[in-house]
Design brief:
alpha+beta, 8-stranded mixed beta sheet, 5-stranded mixed beta sheet
Length: 828
């Protein structure tokens, strides 16, 4: 990956010397259905001004066929990543003809063959730097330009890009589609989607503005596509942002495409947003899943302004788009859609991601120091997204909502179609609020770490914080009402800056710090409040308060301050009554994680059995057909991967010899989860798994089949899975994940511990030879779940000069392992 890396310094020098006027990109994907065709023709014409005689274009592909500089063919120079340009004038036109390579890793132009109908589907994914896998370009966000795309594709295909088609010529076998030029945008948010996609249309109107809407997915998924629900959220979001941003939606149309084997949740390409097709629910789905999809739709929509209209200069300021989009996604969900409790999921899931990331040795400020593209790739993390969004929520509490939005509106007007840094945003927010935000930015955006807040009682109450920062927060006082429920009867809001801050509070059974979740901090429950929670957590009526309590309990467990046995006891006692499926899903995942990572080895089997029985009973006791029942069933399947007590029951249900719990839909995904559990515990052979594949011979079914096969508790199976993960370059991104998951299934250290040394021997080679996306999956997915730090410490000591991005991943995995061992030791 080294020759493909780009540094901040060299790209800054390039943008200072080169100004792009326009791109024309011609792609010929007409042979894409032929799987033997590895590549596609790509021709880029770029017009630019230059103050230097030499620069370079970026391209990663199979071949450069010709380079024309200002009308003259020149000798092709190409090292696999860069195309040097010489003899430049003040004004230049360069034409690069090349052969790009179809991707199976989700990077660049991804090609997918649908096993259901034999059709081929293409889509692009570029962030942060994979447009160069499709066309020659200046691959950096601050060199914006208008793009004109022209695509030759098979007749009958949908061909979609950022702008509407301007000209379509069709000879009955191939179609040539030329799109209208875009407004100035960065390379990484250009997009092409092509294939026989199912396409549903609608329209959004506001005043004189009319925006055509489209929703697309693979034809074989069309029967599952709930386009009306997606359009409803889309229109609600466009209304919300139009009202609050006061800058008209600038991109003409708004297509949303659900694509296979996607590496992300979604990507904000203006006018052509791409999503993982996991959001097309082919079976039953919980309210939490629908809520998460709505949040993602609105997150990407916010990017149309934060990120697309105004873009960061370099990836240091990635937060300028991702933090805002994460915040706006939750805000718009809560205020413009049916998901009025969206902040509950944010507090319990998104912030959990941030708290975990911010305690790693590799944590970084929200405004990060990103020296190159490899570092940028790994910076799409809990700090940039969830911590940044949490800090913005704190900023709104600090400056006031109207001042915050007025600052955003000034920012859009001043910097439309341009690039910005932190200073540009602070200027507009300070002007709108009348506050100097330099100190706030220093405290929140340019430092690392998470404060921990606790309440101490002596002569009076004091809020104590570690790693002090300025917080605007509230303390909620909860008492028992006439119905026996815990409800808030008082709330004290205050500023907390110092290490110790006095606060006047009356007595209450439950005192909840950060009530309303205004700030970003871990919270500890005082002893009396913890006792109340252990007795009556299910009596807390407000879902956000429950979410904050569950978050506090989990953070204390992760830090070794709360015995994981106590957390598990509360999960068993209160999760069955949890009505919010986002909270329920998080608690179920945390409980399972605690058993496998935080309990001493000698107590795990007993707790695994208890947890499986809890999940099994709750699945049968839950309201038939409810989201809660589905969440518990999925948790039961997960628990059954490591405990075979209900293997006979599961097999009987899958074979149709026994009915499933009343109301529980045995959709394909749940069936595969149950088959994987049987396989991992030795109760399903390949023939049985093949029968299930025949029942669900879809893309998802084939991926699940691969996972279930690799899950079998057999040394030879594990050996083949290991070799496949490391050496089979034909595996797609999703299939690689399936093989790795199967290899790890069942927590069978007796079968896979022997690969620990091989892991550390292999990862440097993997990093050097595979794309960063694939290498990252291997490094993270196969990291040994050892009971010692010796092997990883030896590797870190012996390899001080490995690429920084690889070292970061290993350091983070080491820290997770060290936490497991530390908490496990404290629990003994």
């Amino acid at each position: 990956m080294s020759i493909a890396n780009l540094t901040r310094a060299e790209t800054a020098a390039r943008s200072a010397a080169v100004t792009v006027r326009s791109y024309r990109v011609e792609l010929d994907v007409s042979a894409a259905p032929d799987q033997s065709e590895a590549g596609f023709l790509t021709t880029t014409t770029v017009e630019f001004d230059a103050t230097v005689a030499e620069t370079w274009l970026d391209f990663i592909g199979l071949e450069i066929r010709s380079v024309i500089v200002n009308g003259q063919f020149v000798d092709v120079e190409y090292d696999g990543a860069r195309v040097p340009l010489h003899g430049l004038r003040r004004s230049n036109t360069v034409v690069v003809s090349a052969v790009g390579e179809y991707s199976r890793s989700g990077e660049g132009l991804h090609r997918f063959h649908d096993p259901v109908d034999g059709q081929t589907y293409l889509y692009t994914q570029y962030e942060p730097s994979d447009a160069r896998r499709v066309f020659a370009c200046f691959e950096q966000p601050d060199m914006k330009a208008p793009f004109t795309f022209a695509v030759t594709a098979p007749t009958g295909w949908e061909v979609v890009s950022n702008r509407p088609a301007a000209v379509v010529e069709d000879d009955g076998e191939r179609q040539a589609v030329e799109f209208s030029p875009t407004l100035p945008i960065s390379t990484y948010i250009t997009a092409i989607v092509a294939g026989p996609y199912h396409h549903v249309e609608s329209v959004w109107n506001r005043g004189d503005l009319e925006v055509p809407l489209g929703v697309l997915c693979r034809a074989s998924l069309a029967r599952y596509l709930d386009a009306d629900t997606i359009f409803e959220v889309t229109k609600q979001g466009l209304d919300f942002f139009a009202e609050h941003f006061e800058y008209p939606y600038p991109w003409g149309k708004y297509d949303q495409v659900f694509v296979p084997e996607y590496n992300l949740g979604a990507m904000e390409n203006p006018g052509c947003v791409t999503f993982t097709e996991a959001y097309v629910f082919r079976g039953a789905a919980t309210a939490a899943q629908y809520e998460a999809r709505a949040n993602t739709i609105l997150h990407e929509m916010a990017h149309m302004w934060f990120g697309d209209l105004v873009t960061m200069v370099w990836w240091d300021d990635l937060w300028l788009k991702e933090s805002f989009a994460d915040y706006m996604g939750a805000l718009a969900s809560a205020e413009a859609t049916e998901w009025v409790d969206a902040w509950v999921a944010f507090a319990n899931r998104r912030k959990a991601w941030a708290y975990s990331q911010d305690q790693l040795p590799t944590t970084h400020p929200i405004v990060a120091d990103i020296v190159d593209l490899e570092a940028a790739k790994l910076n799409f993390d809990g700090i940039t997204y969830a911590k940044g969004a949490s800090v913005l929520k704190q900023l709104v509490a600090y400056v006031g909502r109207e001042a915050f939005f007025e600052g955003a509106r000034r920012y859009f007007r001043e910097h439309a179609f341009g690039n910005t840094t932190l200073a540009d945003l602070l200027t507009e927010l300070s002007a709108a609020s009348g506050r100097d935000l330099a100190a706030w930015a220093q405290a929140w955006l340019q430092t690392t770490g998470v404060s921990t807040l606790s309440l101490e009682a002596g002569g009076g109450y004091e809020i104590v914080q570690t790693d002090p920062r300025p917080h605007r927060l509230a303390v909620g006082l909860y008492d028992v009402d006439d119905a026996g429920n815990l409800v808030r009867r008082d709330r004290v809001e205050l500023d907390v800056v110092a290490e110790r801050t006095p606060v006047e509070l009356s007595a209450a059974p439950l005192r909840l710090l950060n009530d309303g979740d205004l700030t970003y901090a871990k919270v500890r429950l005082d002893a009396g409040s913890l006792e109340t929670v252990e007795r009556s957590l299910d009596r807390v009526v407000d879902p956000l308060a429950r979410g904050l309590i569950w978050s506090a309990l989990w953070n204390a467990t992760r830090d070794g301050d709360l015995d994981p046995e106590r957390y598990l006891a509360m999960a068993r006692a209160f999760a069955p009554a949890e009505a919010n499926t986002a909270l329920l899903t998080a608690v179920l995942a945390n409980a399972s994680f605690a058993i496998g990572h935080y309990l001493p080895v000698d107590s795990r089997d007993r707790r695994r059995r208890e947890w499986l029985e809890t999940c099994w009973a709750a699945t049968h006791d839950a309201d038939p057909g409810s989201g809660g029942q589905l969440a518990w069933a999925r948790a039961a399947a997960s628990a059954a991967v490591v405990d075979d007590h209900h293997a006979a029951d599961i097999r009987a249900i899958l074979d149709g010899d026994r009915p499933a719990p009343d109301g529980l839909p045995l959709d394909p995904d749940l069936r595969w989860a149950l088959w994987t559990a049987l396989s991992a515990t030795g109760h399903a052979d390949p023939d049985a798994l093949d029968v299930e594949l025949a029942r669900d011979d879809t893309a998802s079914g084939r991926t699940a089949h691969l996972r279930a096969l690799a899950a079998r508790p057999d040394a030879g199976v594990k050996a083949r899975a290991w070799t496949s993960a490391l050496e089979d370059t034909a595996l797609s991104n999703d299939h690689l994940d399936a093989v790795i998951a199967g290899f790890r299934a069942g927590e069978r250290r007796d079968l896979i511990a022997g690969y620990d040394d091989a892991y550390f021997t292999a990862i440097s080679t993997v990093w050097a030879q595979r794309s960063i996306e694939i290498a990252r999956r291997i490094v993270l997915g196969l990291f040994p779940a050892s009971d010692s730090l010796d092997a990883v410490d030896s590797w870190l000591s012996a390899n001080p000069d490995v690429p920084a991005a690889l070292r970061r991943l290993v350091l983070e995995q080491r820290d997770h392992l060290a936490r497991d061992l530390r908490v496990r030791g404290a629990a003994c």
